[in-house]
Write a structure and sequence with these properties.
Elements lengths: L2 H14 L11 H4 L7 H7 L2 H13 L5 H17 L4 E6 L7 E6 L1 E3 L5 E3 L3 H5 L1 E4 L16 E5 L6 E5 L2 E12 L8 H21 L9 E14 H5 L2 H6 L24 H16 L4 E6 L5 E6 L2 E2 H21 L2 E4 L13 E9 L3 E2 L7 H20 L1 H7 L21 E2 L2 H11 L6 E3 L2 E3 L2 H7 L12 E3 L4 E3 L9 H28 L3 H16 L11 H9 L9 H4 L6 H10 L4 H52 L9 H23 L8 H27 L12 H6 L2
Parallel strand pairs: 1-8, 16-19
Antiparallel strand pairs: 1-2, 3-4, 5-6, 6-8, 7-8, 9-11, 9-12, 9-13, 9-14, 10-11, 14-15, 14-20, 17-18, 19-20
Bound molecules: adenosine-5'-diphosphate and magnesium ion.
Adenosine-5'-diphosphate binds next to strand 9, strand 11 and strand 14.
Length: about 725
């Protein structure tokens, strides 16, 4: 079958298909968390003492002792085997955005050759996946490759069912034999711990005596596209790069806003329900789903959870979205920009910090005392984003996300903070010494409770800000749809820890000099606002005026490209931040810079090679076929009374020539390897290679508008986006 025939065949197949229906729709209370070995399951299957020990481990984050590990492992095995599970796997999160697993059987044979099952505590807390092929920067020499995985007891084990059997999955940390973190989980746990310690310092200075451990929370909204797999299979770019490298914009795109929150296509509804049933079984609280702005684009958002668990769940959610799509005849695209000219996909990371005694510290609260705690924590976030904006930008840097940031659909690549009108005024008044405190019942009342509660109105939202306060949390909106949420969470927790430590140091002095607590807090915040208030911005983040003002007047950085964002990880201030908070050693930090840069270059290299291959072997041949037909027609007509307009053929010939000439330059440039540094190589890819890819694409897209439809070999935008 020639290429264009497979395209037409796809359209027929999709038109004639009937949607799948779900085989089972069990009630929520029967399936909810039924495949999770959670506290409830543990309480049933463990002795009182063992249960108490494991619960304490989870709540305090202390390591699991060998004896408890043995007992827990035995109970886990019994539970899993009763559910027909034969394998177990440590699941971990290497420095790519991926999830990794290595499966082992429970089975071993004894000296008589009989099969018995075994799963001890040491298998639970130390697996050895080797893992020499995971990118790890230069932490480990491959010849010394020994990576270890160990269960993170704060993330419960669960059973993953596939058509090929069921596996007990153990969420794990991944470290080198020398104890360095090779993953995204260890630094996330460490950053949470650093934030906890610093937060406690502030709270105890504020006179709190009973302070439970502080934890960060995360609720991530995930956007994605669905494309029918018949189409996807005819598009090597979608299959290998996750985005279209060619494709002319359709006559109708998203201008009518008729997709957003519209009725969900039936086939997609069935898919979503299938996804959600699986998520419920795994105890993942999927809560909202709807159509997104672009045609073919959707969103799913679970209810928020502790950041560490939410992050594991987010990875699992992405896996399930992709796996289930296959079953329903779709390809699920998590790429940040699958289609040019149409909205891309992001992941809004909603984040807050709190504990069981003081509650959510990013909630203004109802009492004057709660208001003060809130202002200090909120102020600490403002300081963090101002001091480390470029670092936050680097935490969301990827080849894919570069297509979104700064385009008119996603926040700009300038990190600013949106507070909402009311709260912005409060901070401005503090800065200008205009906040009036009155004494009520012996305590200073800043009169904030009323004002701050007003903030909860969700209508008062600025969608153009990358980092927005939304009533009781911050929402980091610039994160890419394909990215792990751990990276941004690590940075948010770490900069907050650093800022809370500054707040604690400053507050301590201020409490000694000022006459009361309220005045001490206000004086800390005034200093903070004088140094960092510039980062607060409530206007239109998309406007060019802001881009100029941010950089020229406010001194904020605009970093549109990954090639400029990743080198931030090499800066001394960033190294100091991670070292002083104990989140990453300088070796660990450098390994991240190396791995992320390598990933960026690799992603663009794959795209460039695909552009060359597709232009040469798919597009050009189709063009030649059509040109041949045109020239045959032209010669058949010559000498007859009908005149033939050759301008179409000459336009096509010209475009094809220009495309192939750009392909040749790209083929030559992509072989370059004489770079002095990784930064130089990244710049070369970000500029020269990306420009050449764009040039090839421009000519190819022009050709798509000229070639007879029946000859065009690749499924078109209008087909992939609108045929369901
Ligand atoms: P919107 O699309 O209006 O931003 P959604 O309801 O789709 O809102 O998503 C909001 C996300 O924020 C959900 O995952 C929700 O659970 C989460 N969230 C709500 N409160 C908090 C909080 N205090 N901390 C972290 N996440 C939160
Ligand atoms: Mg949101």
């Amino acid at each position: 079958m020639s290429e264009n025939e497979s395209r037409l065949e796809s359209i027929r197949a999709i038109t004639n298909r009937s949607p799948m229906s779900l085989s089972s729709t069990e009630p929520l209370n029967t399936i909810w968390a039924c495949d999770v070995f959670n506290f409830a399951t543990m309480e049933e299957s463990l002795s009182k003492n063992a249960f108490k020990a494991i619960k304490k481990t989870v709540q305090t984050g202390e390591p699991l002792d060998k004896a408890t590990a043995d007992v827990v492992a035995a109970a886990m095995k019994e539970w899993a085997i009763a559910k027909n599970v034969k394998f177990f796997s440590h699941i971990f999160y290497p420095l790519t955005n991926a999830t990794a697993e290595k499966h082992d059987g429970f089975i071993i044979t004894n000296s008589e050759g009989n099969a018995i099952t075994e799963f001890t505590g040491s298998l639970l807390i130390k697996g050895e996946p080797d893992g020499s092929s995971f990118p790890n920067g230069s932490i480990r020499m491959t010849n010394a490759a020994r990576g270890y995985t160990a269960w993170d007891p704060s993330s419960p084990v669960y059973i993953m069912h596939t058509e090929n059997g069921s596996t007990l999955m153990i969420p794990s940390v991944f470290m080198s034999w020398t104890g360095e973190s090779l993953d995204k989980k260890i630094p996330l746990l460490r950053s949470n711990d650093a934030m906890n310690k610093a937060g406690k310092r502030v709270l105890s200075l504020m006179g709190e005596t009973n302070i439970a451990p502080l934890d960060s929370s995360c609720g991530a909204e995930q956007e994605y596209f669905l494309v029918d797999s018949h189409f996807a299979n005819c598009r090597p770019d979608l299959l290998l790069a996750g985005r279209t490298l060619f494709g002319k914009a359709p006559e109708k795109g998203q201008e009518f806003d008729d997709h957003y929150f519209g009725s969900i296509p039936k086939r997609v509804q069935v898919y979503m329900q299938d996804v959600e049933d699986q998520l419920y079984r795994l105890g993942i609280p999927a809560k909202t789903h709807h159509n997104e702005v672009a045609p073919g684009q959707f969103e799913i958002a679970p209810y928020f959870e502790a950041a560490n668990v939410a992050s594991d769940h987010q990875q699992l959610l992405m896996t399930i979205l992709k796996m289930t799509a296959k079953k329903h005849g779709f390809l699920c695209l998590l790429h940040e920009k699958p289609f040019a000219g149409i909205n891309g996909s992001g992941k809004h990371v909603n984040w807050s910090v709190g504990n069981s005694t003081q509650g959510n510290l990013l909630d203004p609260g109802k009492t004057p005392h709660e208001n003060l705690n809130f202002l200090l924590f909120c102020g600490a976030v403002i300081r963090g984003v101002h001091k480390f904006g470029p670092l936050l930008r680097s935490a969301i840097a990827s080849a894919g996300n570069d297509h979104r940031l700064g385009a008119n659909e996603a926040p700009p690549a300038i990190l600013s903070v949106y507070l909402g009108e009311q709260l912005e005024k409060v901070f401005k008044d503090i800065k200008e010494g205009k906040l009036i405190a009155c004494k009520e019942n012996g305590e200073m009342d800043l009169g904030l409770s009323q004002i701050l509660n007003f903030e909860r109105d969700p209508g008062d939202r600025n969608r153009t800000s990358p980092f927005a306060f939304t009533g009781n949390r911050f929402e980091f909106r610039a994160v890419g749809s394909e990215q792990s949420v751990s990276g941004p969470l690590i940075v948010m927790n770490t900069i907050l820890a650093d800022s809370l430590n500054w707040v604690a140091d400053t507050l301590k002095i201020s409490l000694e000099t000022e006459e009361d607590k309220s005045s001490a807090v206000i004086s800390v915040l005034q200093e903070l606002m004088n140094k960092h208030g510039n980062v607060i911005f409530g206007g239109d983040g998309y406007s060019s005026e802001w881009h100029t003002m941010a950089v020229e007047e406010r001194g904020l950085k605009n970093i549109p490209k990954t090639a400029d964002a990743l080198p931030v990880l090499q800066e001394a201030s960033v190294k100091k931040l991670f070292e002083s908070t104990g989140v990453l050693s300088s070796v660990e930090l450098m390994s991240r810079y190396e791995v992320y840069s390598e990933q960026y270059i690799l992603a663009l290299e794959v795209e460039a090679k695909l552009v060359i291959e597709m232009a040469k072997t798919i597009i050009y041949p189709a063009v030649v076929t059509y040109l041949t037909e045109l020239s045959m027609l032209s010669s058949n007509l010559s000498g007859k009374s009908i005149t033939f307009d050759d301008s179409v053929s000459s336009t096509i010939a010209q475009e094809a020539g220009a495309m192939m000439s750009a392909v040749n330059t790209l083929s030559h440039e992509i072989t370059r390897n004489d770079f002095d540094s990784t930064n130089e190589q990244m710049q070369f890819f970000a500029n020269d290679i990306c420009d050449l890819m764009e040039e090839v694409r421009m000519h190819a897209d022009n050709l798509e508008g000229e070639i007879a439809d029946k000859y065009w070999p690749l499924p078109k935008y209008r087909e992939m986006l609108f045929i369901k």
